[in-house]
Design a protein that fits this description.
The protein is α+β, with helices and mostly antiparallel strands and 114 residues long. The chain is 27% helix and 21% strand. The protein has 2 domains: 1-36, no CATH class; 40-114, no CATH class.
């Protein structure tokens, strides 16, 4: 809803009307799914960047939130993926990280809500 196609520049443009804290991530435009990624702002620390990027959305369930932050990003190799999750642990220190384990068979972190 907040992304349109500019025929002049031949690119998709975000209208900027949704606050970044709303965690808008995916849009469907003309039947195609697009994922919005947030770039690091100039001078932004790791803590500020991860807090902005991975904060829990108001409408997200606990399960949806953990699935989103623990998923491996496209093109992310194992070392980069593990380093990102370790960085998140230092930012979100009050999160229940004792329920997060690395599944060797799936090659990704999983959240056990038990």
């Amino acid at each position: 809803d907040h992304v349109s196609y500019d025929v002049t520049t031949k690119s998709y443009v975000f209208d900027g009307t949704v606050p970044i804290s709303d965690n808008i991530r995916d849009s469907v435009i003309e039947g195609k799914e697009w994922t919005v990624t947030w770039l690091r702002r100039e001078g932004e620390t790791d803590n500020q960047y991860y807090s902005r990027l991975y904060s829990k959305g108001d409408s997200e369930t606990e399960e949806q939130y953990w699935l989103r932050i623990l998923r491996r990003l496209p093109g992310e190799d194992e070392d980069t993926y593990k380093a990102r999750i370790e960085s998140l642990k230092t930012v979100f220190t009050n999160a229940p990280w004792d329920h997060v384990t690395y599944d060797e068979d799936k090659d990704q972190f999983i959240f056990d809500n038990k």
